[in-house]
């Protein structure tokens, strides 16, 4: 256990959060967080490919054909219904079903990245590699170098394989580039959906006061600039909020494990084991809290995206027409056509 914990520990805490080179494709470097993002995307595709077959209706089976099969698929269905009915529909109304696929994609992609980032797979494989003969480790390192993998600058083991594997870890949402990319997609969705639904009227949101009389023009012009900057700032906040939260969680865990290194230097093996037990207990409790934050941050990112989209795509406020808020009745289209079911 001691060696495994020491793999998780680093004197330089930034090692846990900074991008590490995984391998290269030509002159293009693939970093560990890019690999984790790809893994998360693959997991989302596989899981929902599997769930779609379980949720798919089969009219030949009667009413049973409309029942989702399997508890895992039912859990995903509950989450999808929650996002649609409790997050999207109160804000988007009749536009909900039109854009719910994008909203579901945002929520489950961010959530999967957060959850994948909590799995210490890299240190686990590093622990396994540490038991391999040196000749085998050297052969693997040469094979990795052949595809462009580079030794880690903080490598402690003389061969480098254990250190390289231990750093194939981290949270992709702890990288500002990743959260910024997600925020750019949200910006495109906010502006694109607003223009699609409102046409040129969408730009009227940027002019809360008229340009006439002429003396009002400077004030109206400044407000247009402020409103336009507001849309950009909202997306910047989306990126910074997710990045900061996930980065902080990883740094706190890294700091806890680093206490073991300090204990080893101060008191040797006995103190290392004593502090190690306390750190593992504290890290377990903190990981449970981080699990909660992984779900919460995915929810907040999705909720704010929906809120910003609705601000431009759905009329609110100044019109005071109640009929504009009378959305269509909620119903599950999957139940249409069932004999005896009235929607």
SSE blueprint:
Layout: H1 2-8, E1 21-25, E2 28-31, H2 32-55, H3 71-92, H4 96-118, H5 121-130, H6 134-146, H7 161-166, H8 176-198, H9 217-313
Antiparallel strand pairs: 1-2
Task: From the structure above, extract its key features.
343 residues, globular, two-stranded antiparallel sheet, 9 helices, 66% helix, disordered C terminus, mainly alpha
What can you see in these coordinates?
With 343 residues, the protein is mainly α. The protein has helices spanning 2-8, 32-55, 71-92, 96-118, 121-130, 134-146, 161-166, 176-198, 217-313; strands at residues 21-25, 28-31. The protein has a two-stranded antiparallel sheet with strand order 1-2. Mean pLDDT is 79; it is low at 318-343.
Q: What would a concise description of this structure say?
A:
With about 350 residues, the chain is mainly α. It is about 65% helix and about 5% strand. It has helices spanning about 1-10, 30-55, 70-90, 95-120, 120-130, 135-145, 160-165, 175-200, 215-315, and strands spanning about 20-25, 30.
Poorly predicted runs: 318-343
Q: Level of helix content? A: 55-70%
Radius of gyration: 26 Å
Mean pLDDT: 79
- What separation lies between the terminal Cα atoms? 59 Å
Q: Which strand order does the major sheet show?
A: 1-2
């Amino acid at each position: 256990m001691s060696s495994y914990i020491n793999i998780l520990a680093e004197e330089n805490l930034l090692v846990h959060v900074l991008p590490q080179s995984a391998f290269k494709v030509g002159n293009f470097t693939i970093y560990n967080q890019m690999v984790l993002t790809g893994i998360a995307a693959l997991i989302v595709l596989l899981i929902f490919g599997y769930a779609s077959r379980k949720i798919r209706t089969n009219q030949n089976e009667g009413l049973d054909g409309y029942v989702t099969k399997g508890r895992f698929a039912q859990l995903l269905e509950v989450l999808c219904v929650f996002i649609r009915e409790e997050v999207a529909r109160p804000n988007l109304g009749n536009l909900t079903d039109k854009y719910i696929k994008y909203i579901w994609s945002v929520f489950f992609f961010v959530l999967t990245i957060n959850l994948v980032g909590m799995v210490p797979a890299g240190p686990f494989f590093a622990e396994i590699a540490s038991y391999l003969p040196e000749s085998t480790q050297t052969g693997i390192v040469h094979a990795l170098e052949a595809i462009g993998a580079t030794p880690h600058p903080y490598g402690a083991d003389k061969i480098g394989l254990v250190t390289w594997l231990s750093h194939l870890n981290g949270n992709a949402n702890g990288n500002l580039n990743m959260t910024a990319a997600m925020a750019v997609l949200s910006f495109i969705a906010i502006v694109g959906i607003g223009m699609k639904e409102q046409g040129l009227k969408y730009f009227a949101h940027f002019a809360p006061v008229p340009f006439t009389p002429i003396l009002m023009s400077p004030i109206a012009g400044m407000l247009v600039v402020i409103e336009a900057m507001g849309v950009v700032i909202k997306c910047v906040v989306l990126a910074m909020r997710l990045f900061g939260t996930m980065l902080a969680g990883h740094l706190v865990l890294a700091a806890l494990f680093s206490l073991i290194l300090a204990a080893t230097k101060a008191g040797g093996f006995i103190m290392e084991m004593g502090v190690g037990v306390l750190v593992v207990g504290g890290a377990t409790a903190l990981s449970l809290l981080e699990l909660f934050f992984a779900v919460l941050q995915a929810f907040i990112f999705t909720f704010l995206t929906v809120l910003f989209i609705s601000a431009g795509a759905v009329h609110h406020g100044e019109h005071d027409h109640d009929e504009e808020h009378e959305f269509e009745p909620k119903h599950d289209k999957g139940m249409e056509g069932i004999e005896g079911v009235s929607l």
